[in-house]
Amino acid sequence: MTMTSDSPSRAPLPLQIGQGSPVHRSLQVLGLAVLVALAILGSRTNSFQVGLLTQALIYAIAIAGLNLVTGYTGMLSIGHSAFFGIGAYTTGILVAQHNWNPLVTFIVSFLICFIFGLIVGLPALRIRGINLALVTLALAVAFPELIDRFPGLTGGTLGLNVNLTQLLPPHWTGIGIQNRFEYYYWIAAVVLALVLVLCANLTRGRSGLAMRATRDRETAATAVGVNLAWIKVFTFGISAAVTGVAGSVFAMYLGSLSADSSFTLTLSITLITGLVIGGVATIVGPIVGGLAVIYIPHWTENLRQGQTEGLFFGTILIILMFVMPDGLMGLLKRLSRHVVRIKPRAPEVAMAVSEELLAHRDRSADPDPEGKGDTTLAVS
After folding, report:
1. Where are the domains of the chain?
2. CA distance 288 to 306
3. Closest CA to 238 of 276, 199, 264, 292
4. Contacts of range 131-137, beta carbons closer than 8 Å, 24 or more positions apart
5. How far apart (Å, rounded) are the C-alpha atoms in residues 164 and 166?
């Protein structure tokens, strides 16, 4: 006798969800709602915790900028502390010496750091790997020295102080002077949200495909017509600009600047550490990294005995690297694949690449079909 079961069959795991489907969109909205709720809860804590969270958000902005050039494009930069400092001093000088609105200076910092990033990114056209890292390392080491060389503009070794009244919340916000750190917290949160939206748009579609191709297979990227020079220099510029805006928010939050203590090589190492902990080439990873580089030292400081807090911090980092080699977001992605798997829009991507391959093949077969002499294929 054959026994049959009337119980409904369970859907096999992992669940398959199409990218861009209503279910996928609903999950994205839910995740966004959770982040907003956490941000609101963070603003309701005491002033000390709000201060720590603000610093974490500022670092998250800077890590997001570093993630573009190192995570998505594969160019290791140890000089982003300099871009952070350029943005900070741009805001500090414009506010302290020219009475600018601090929020307006963010735009100026973005543009100035973008230009500096383009210049620094030029060596990436000729060198890469450890050699490029050494070039950016020289920038990180030289920046504090350059700041000290112009005391009339930057305050030199004495630092640059901004009048507190220039950094207070506007009256229409309803936030008093005693709660000004909540104001800085929300500025950092809004800037971070805008930066993450920018990064998400840059790293998807053809631009994101070109960035990853530059990182993983330069030869193959060139074969399909990716303009490596443009991708490298432009990404370096945007990365520097985003990190510069983080420096501007930092200057507004801190109110005083000193290159010898705030913008040294240690800052660059901290940003790289946060990027690795959060997860390279992920959108949410910088948030995790920013929280980690602020809160792990804070927690280990409470455990220290004498001068051993660095030992605790280093030990925790080593453990995290063994447990999560791809960062926390990489670990979560691997675990989530056992439950839910997002199916990418492979046909669209494949079609885009196929079009480029066919166009490149046709132009190779007939280099000058119209007599114009232009055989260059570029992907923007």
Report:
1. 15-346
2. 29
3. 199
4. 132/75, 132/76, 132/77, 133/76, 133/77, 133/78, 135/79, 136/76, 136/77, 136/78, 136/79, 136/80, 137/78, 137/79, 137/265, 137/268
5. 5
Angle (deg, nearest 10), helices 47-66 and 80-98:
120
The token pair that represents 107 in the structure block: 């735009």
- pTM for the full model? 0.86
- Rounded to the nearest angstrom, the gap between the alpha carbon of residue 73 and the centroid of all alpha carbons in its chain is 12
Count CB-CB contacts under 10 A for residue 265: 16
CB 124 within 8 A of CB 68: no
Q: Collapsing DSSP states into helix, strand and coil, what is residue 344?
A: coil
Tokens matching residue 23: 């279910």
Q: Two tokens at 93?
A: 């000088």
CATH class of the region 15-346: mainly alpha
Query: Does an H or E element contain 249, and which?
Result: helix 228-254
Q: What is the DSSP string of 254-306?
A: HSEE-HHHHSSHHHHHHHHHHHHHH-TT-SSHHHHHHHHHHHHHHHHHHH-SS
Nearby residues of 207 by Cβ (< 8 Å), 6 or more positions away? 380
Place of tokens 């390392």: 137
Angle (deg, nearest 10), helices 285-303 and 265-278: 110
Which single residue is written with the structure tokens 């030199």?
156
Burial code (b: 16+ CB inside 10 Å, e: under 16) for 295-312 equals ebbeebeeeeeeeebeeb
Q: Which residues of the chain have pLDDT under 70?
A: 1-13, 164-165, 176-178, 302-310, 312-313, 345-380
Which residue type, as a one-letter code, is found at position 90?
A: T
In this predicted model, what pLDDT tens digit does every residue of 198-257 receive, in sequence order?
999 999 888 898 999 999 988 888 888 889 999 999 999 999 999 999 999 999 999 999
Which value, to the nearest 10 degrees, does the dihedral of the CA atoms of residues 119, 121, 125, 128 take? Answer: 140
The count of residues in the chain is 380
Closest Cα to residue 180, out of 288, 255, 241?
255
In three-state secondary structure terms, 74 is coil
Of the CA atoms within 13 Å of residue 271, those in its CB half-sphere come to: 36
Q: At what angle do helices 285-303 and 47-66 cross, to 10 degrees?
A: 130
Residue 46 backbone dihedrals phi, psi, to 5 degrees = -70, 170
